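Revision sheet: structure tokens.
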Amino acid sequence: MEYIHSQSFIHRDIKPDNFLIGLKSKASTVYIIDFGLAKRYKDPKTGQHIPYRNNKNLTGTARYASVNTHMGIEQSRRDDLEGVCYVLLYLLRGSLPWQGLTAKNKNEKYRKIMETKMSTSTEALCKGVPSNEKCLYKYIDEMQTLLKYCKGLKFEEEPNYANIRQPLKEMFEKGGFTNDFSFDWNNVAAETEKKSILGHLVDRQNQLARRNSAKKVTEDPKEEEK
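Predicted:
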């Protein structure tokens, strides 16, 4: 997000679907896609920030949108970062409190999501994080600090990305992890590739067996005629 923001753009549609993991030598690289809703938040030449506006329609995915976005306020860097927090919480919790709400139409659903987000305290939201010893965010205080910081940013305020990364690094170390670039998805990818290779070999063997069988059938009658 820091790099995107450094290019004078905000993404405006933060959600798990828009983050991809590289393959093989790029397995430690996280990619972000779908810039269809991205927007310049400042002039790259003058540095002039876009003006504060309200009464805006919701842009992005309601589940991960910031509270200010629900309230119709023009988005800025803070909204991307709050969205990232909701994505992390979703991945850790398995769900968010405002999922599965029933409504008669889209506007009513958006309103219910906004009301649930506003009525769910940061503490209550972060307490839903599992206390598994292998969980990166088993330390609830750090997750609360991260979300509170992002939600507390002003419209034009430049986020302190180093401060945002620091609690993540601390939780990583406290969780007993090592920075060896060996991730769960590496093992899954390797296993998948292994199965693909084995499957290809089995298919090849079956093809050869069928060919030999067909060859034998066509050769036998000739031998009988002789």
